[in-house]
Amino acid sequence: MQETYDFLKQAGTYYLATCENGQPRVRPFGTIHLYRDRLYIQTGKVKAVSRQLHANPKLEICAMLGGRWLRLEATAVEDDSREARVSMLEAYPSLQAMYSPDDGNTEVWYLRNATATFSSFTEPPKTVKF
Q1: DSSP 8-class letter at 72
Q2: How far apart are CA 111 and CA 53, in angstroms?
Q3: pLDDT tens digit sequence for 48-86
Q4: How far apart, in whole angstroms, are the C-alpha atoms of residue 59 and residue 82?
């Protein structure tokens, strides 16, 4: 999990895919956070990605860093605890202009049953599960 976190954090932007009515939906994301030995993402409840994850919590993430890329598949689980929202917003102070832990909009999700595959054109793929 740490290697996956480090890769996504260094990449800065990753692409998160969900599904809506059988149609893939992909968008850039930037929040990745380790909290209580879990990997978390953050969004707002008013966004389509939130609605999509509530309907189907399976997601995929893809990021590239240098000559390597990461594909991560997981199931998102909403953590409705205030402590998790606070932790995320403390890790990303720039989000505090748009979100607060008690605004009724901020939501955080941890990734469960995750499989991360690190690939490149010069090395064999490496897969980790957490």
Answers
A1: E
A2: 12
A3: 999 999 999 999 999 999 999 999 999 999 999 999 999
A4: 23
Residue 37 phi, psi dihedral angles, 5° rounding: 60, 35
Contact 8, 14 (CB under 8 A): yes
The predicted model gives 95-112 an average pLDDT of 98
**Whether the predicted model's global pTM rises above the 0.85 cut:** yes
Give dist(CA 91, CA 100) in Å, integer. Answer: 13
User: 62: which 2 tokens?
Assistant: 């893809």
- Positive or negative, the CA dihedral 126, 30, 103, 59 is negative
> How large a percentage of the chain has pLDDT more than 70?
100
Task: Provide the pLDDT for residue 33.
Answer: 98
Fold topology of 2-129: Pnp Oxidase; Chain A (2.30.110)
Give yes or no for a contact between 109 and 77, defined as CB atoms under 8 angstroms apart.
Answer: yes
Pairing state of beta strands 106-120 and 68-79?
antiparallel
- Taking the C-alpha atoms of residue 74 and residue 34, their distance in angstroms, rounded to an integer, is 15
Decide: 16 and 31 in contact? Cβ < 8 Å.
no
